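Progress narrative, work stream C.
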Amino acid sequence: MAGKKKSFFTRFANWISRQAGKPITFISAVATVIIWGISGPFFGFSDTW
């Protein structure tokens, strides 16, 4: 299979998996959850939470 061009999906999936494994991705996810939780009282913790 040497020399065979990888499909767009394969290249995209590999890129996503590399990005998902970075510490900044984890920190961003945790920060998003914290901000979401803190913002709850300001929006009244609606049923859609």
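Work stream C, second folded protein:
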Amino acid sequence: MKKRLLLVAAAVLVSAAAAPAEFYFGAAGIYSAPLDQPYSSRFGAGISAGWVWSPRFAVELGLGWRPSRVTGSLEGLSDGTLRVFPLEASLRARLPLGSGWVLGGEAGAGWAFHSFSLSDNLRAAWEALGISIKESADGGPVVHLGIGIEYLLTPRWSLEAGLRYTRSRTKGTWSITDEAGGLVQSGTLEKLKLDAVSLTFGLKIALFGAGESQ
């Protein structure tokens, strides 16, 4: 079984190396809609770099930024802003439709970095009582599936729109400090669900081999 997998992988690599290659860079706006109640939708952005080794397949590495307003919950994060920075690799399947249109599908995985900040009002309310609080969300693995459509403006430039589902699970920590007495209490926020559906709209430019894979 292992020998067969190695032969298949070798065949893919050989065919990829022999095919006309196209390298591209992209930038996109992202509207992310979290699927869990404490989080609200916000606009973000992303950048990507990819390699199209045939009219049918491409690999891509992308970095995104997706902020989300958190309304606060007893089991999860408090009122504030959560910023998600996913770094993901994708395998993309491409189906040229003619007249400059390309239908696409993708699947991938990666790691999401998280930054959480409490709202100023909540922080001020606790500080007025002589108490400081801290909360954070750990990084965690992410997986995604997506579909999209691309329109070739020129051999070098193209527009792209897509819909992506991302599954993300992580945990966090919290601490409360009584500034007068120095008493500290802390704990873990378990099973933070950060699943989201995202709409993207962006522009891509072929840097090398422009149009060779079309």
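The chain is about 10% helix and 65% strand. No further action is required on this item.
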